[in-house]
Amino acid sequence: MLRRSIAVVFCLVILAGNSFADQLSNEKGKAKQMLKVVVSEIQKNYYDPDLKGIDLTKLTSQASEMIEGARSVGEVYMVIYGLVDRINDSHTVFDPPPRTVFPKFEFSAKAFGDKVYVNWVKKKGVADKGGLQAGDRLLQVNGFEVDRESINKMMVFFHRIQPVSEFELLVQRGKESPKKVVVVARVERGNVVEGAWYNLNDIFSSLEHPPNEDDGAFIDAAENNGIGYLYLRSFVRDPDNINRVASLAGKQPKGVIIDLRGNFGGIVDTLVNFSGHFVTQEEEMAQMVRRKKTEPIKIKPQRGSYSVPMAILIDSQSSSAAEMFARHFQRAHKATVVGDRSAGKVVTARYFQQELGAGSVTYFGVNISIGKVLFPGGEDLEGNGVTPDIKCLPSPEDLGQSRDVCYGVALAALEKQLGINTNRTTKPQSASADY
């Protein structure tokens, strides 16, 4: 479904493209240079030298011919994007020259189980004015079917790869018949350099999300009958800084809820440092299998670490480092994982920034998976994800009322394990504070 959806999107770009001949010719020349650079970097750095059996040389020749026959600037760069996508790797992505125009649709949607729902609509924003509501089931975007596997890539595509000015959505509200909702984007303009990405997390973090998910939040255990709470939007922060974040759950809590919903991952060293706050002795999390060597990912206790019962919240967008954290402590029987199956995007990658020209520079890049992560026994989360111990999916009504029912489920699981009862199912107000 994902590959069919993206292929159809490519056709949309071809049909919609419109460029001046001289500009198109110039872009074709640059694109052919980019194609050579991107393919060379993948061949040198991708963790599997056999590229999963893909004949990249043949595909590159075909791509060069397609660039020559392209009828629009959009189609030119979609050829390279499509070539890299053929590797079918969650972290290997072509980053075309950045745009100066950024559409904002002021809503977000994500998969809950096998269905996709709108989980946030900005009050008085363009989506709100268009009639979209949180809790609406999203069936189609601009005529293309939406499912669990395609929603994130589709949103990245329409926001950043080939921005569109309008969404025609097919939604279903409750038991009503599906209906169309049109959302016209609010357009922001920025500097070209500011549009550049620097890693895959930047790509997915460019998606719109509720303002309370900007960074993170916490609850000191002293305010919650001994149960601390930490919400991390990502692991993209200085490894030493994460030590302060981990301490915000309080001094020697009875238990901790770690909320990794919507967390697209980040830096391995940051993950390791954060994990070290919840162990009392050195532990091996997984093996990092690179092209030329395999290295263990080890967790060492951090100053002030504590080993207490944990509940870890995940959802369909929990990716990479977030999945590794959840699975390690689930395997070690130190945490109960609550929520939805995670994204299944677990490799380590590096962003290779490139530029063409002198004076008037064109920036582009490619994110490449340089290491495969294997847990004990050869367990591979890539394409599989983490299966929660307790499945929790909010209903459309919960989404519409902004009720965080899965927090209540995680809290109840910890309370049962600890033999306490806070008589609380919602997060205290202090949890809204970012750090």
Explained architecture:
The protein has 435 residues and is α+β, with helices and mostly antiparallel strands. It has three domains: 2-92, no CATH class; 106-184, PDZ domain (Pdz3 Domain), CATH 2.30.42.10; 211-346 and 381-432, 2-enoyl-CoA Hydratase, Chain A, domain 1, CATH 3.90.226. It has twelve helices and 19 strands. The strands form five sheets. It has a six-stranded mixed β-sheet with strand order 10-11-12-15-16-19, sandwiched between helices. Strands 1, 13, 14, 17 and 18 form a five-stranded antiparallel β-sheet that branches. Strands 6-5-7-8 form a four-stranded antiparallel β-sheet. Helix 8 links the parallel strand 11 (227-232) and strand 12 (255-259). Helix 1 (2-16) runs antiparallel to helix 4. The protein starts with a helix and ends in a 17-residue tail after the last helix. Mean pLDDT is 87; it is low at 1-20 and 193-199.
Topology:
Blueprint: H1 2-16, H2 21-45, H3 56-68, H4 73-85, E1 93-95, E2 101-104, E3 107-112, E4 115-121, H5 126-130, E5 137-141, E6 144-145, H6 151-161, E7 166-172, E8 179-184, E9 186-189, H7 200-205, E10 216-219, E11 227-232, H8 241-247, E12 255-259, H9 268-275, E13 283-290, E14 294-299, E15 310-314, H10 321-331, E16 335-339, E17 347-356, E18 362-374, E19 390-391, H11 396-400, H12 405-418
Parallel strand pairs: 11-12, 12-15, 15-16, 16-19
Antiparallel strand pairs: 1-18, 2-9, 3-4, 5-6, 5-7, 7-8, 10-11, 13-14, 13-18, 17-18
Helix pairs in contact: 1-4, 2-3, 2-4, 3-4
Give structural attributes.
435 residues, alpha+beta, Pdz3 Domain, 2-enoyl-CoA Hydratase, Chain A, domain 1, 3 domains, 5-stranded antiparallel sheet, 12 helices, 31% helix, disordered N terminus
